[in-house]
Amino acid sequence: MTVKNFPRQSADGCHNLSNSSQTTTITSAGEMGARIFLRTWRLFTHERRSRSLSYLGVGVLASGVAWYHGIREASAARNQLDTSRFMADPVTPTGDLSKSPGDMKTKMELLILKIQSDFCRSLESVEDGTKFKVDKWSRKEGGGGITCVLQEGTVFEKAGVNISVVSGQLPPGAVRQMRARGKELDEGSLPFFAAGVSAVIHPRNPMVPTIHFNYRYFEVTNKNGSVQWWFGGGTDLTPYYLNEEDARHFHRTLKDACDQHDPSYYSKFKDWCDNYFVIEHRGERRGLGGIFFDDLDSPNQENAFQFVKSCAEAVIPSYIPLVKKHKDDGYGYAERQWQLLRRGRYVEFNLIYDRGTKFGLYTPGARYESILMSLPLTARWEYMHQPSADSKEGKLMEVLKVPRDWLNLQGK
Ligand SMILES: *[C@@H]1O[C@H](CO)[C@@H](O)[C@H](O)[C@H]1NC(C)=O
Ligand SMILES: *[C@@H]1O[C@H](CO)[C@@H](O)[C@H](O)[C@H]1NC(C)=O
Predict the structure, then answer these.
(1) Which of 201, 210, 204 lies closest to 152, judged by CA?
(2) Cβ(35)–Cβ(41) under 8 Å?
(3) For residue range 38-62, what is the model confidence (pLDDT) as tens digits?
(4) What is the rounded distance in angstroms from the CA atom of residue 191 to the CA atom of residue 105?
(5) What is the reported pTM?
(6) What is the pLDDT of residues 171-216, one digit of tens each?
(7) 202 is catalytic
(8) Catalytic one among 69, 202, 212, 326?
(9) How far is the CA of 184 from the centre of ligand 2 (A)?
(10) Ligand 1 center to residue 102 CA distance, Å?
């Protein structure tokens, strides 16, 4: 089993991992991911500091800069498209975006740029001056992305907020997989467009939960020019200690966002989330869930977009209050050890089961730094660790084994 090769890792670093002979014992399906993981780990700890990232000043033109809402107005006054609050310039040249304000590709790119900068600035606002590093990259096949990482902060040990806007040709194998999922697509290679935002936040204090979210839009064009499009995404929470009030706040905020669009969405997407983030070999969930959906192409493109927008905008109110509430809570060695152990479980899920990670890593020329950005800076494995049922750790395990109906909807 892949993961058993890791437990010698120390709690506060990865000195043991620099012995590369350890990696040679790793066999199994996770081999490739694990190797890249180790390599990345070393990169992060030893080389990261010297790597030349493009540090874009995050000190921003003050308050007055308004995010401009009416895309339609932009076509009248082209250079009004205000990109000054974004973490970096849009991936698509601003001139091109201004020319197609009604196109979903434009709307989605502008949405994820804004979600990224709002979330990064919101996280920075609870830090003691630690800022995001901004890395803008491009892909020779088309498009690129903006990767923002905040590492070794006071509140956040590692926070990654990533957007990507890519286009090109889907290989026939990928098209076949989409056809198998019910997409009406021709066989062979087809042009595609994908834009998404994804983030994983690992706080230092074990009383502050980890959050993950991802919202994405996909388009594939058939030979006759017809376009298949869909949205996917979700937000989920992974606490180390269970606080029921926090769990209810988090789920309530997501439900409110869903309810504005369809009264059936929250329940459906909560269940989907509970069934997705499962660490199968342990029979437990990664966390307390949230919402998760894919292949959303109804009721129409604009309404689906508005739903995704509401979900993405619910991230800050669902999470930042929990950070503020708990960032100064007291904790000791035992709580920290438990946090690291649970992060190990997070890694198990991401490397063994997460489709996004696997898809990314097996793609030739994959940008593994971004794909593995979601992994925590430190984690821990302990042989046969079993918290007692009546401990605080045991209380968390209970809800990871049997997901709860946080908002008491079944009883109504
Ligand atoms: C984050 O960036 C990587 C490429 O560096 C990409 O593969 C991944 O899909 C991105 N995530 C999202 C949701 O944009
Ligand atoms: C275009 O091609 C797709 C896939 O083969 C097909 O489902 C669709 O009906 C076609 N549309 C038109 C307008 O011919």
Answers:
(1) 204
(2) no
(3) 333 333 333 333 333 333 333 233 3
(4) 14
(5) 0.79
(6) 898 899 889 889 999 999 999 999 999 999 999 999 999 999 999 9
(7) no
(8) 212
(9) 7
(10) 24
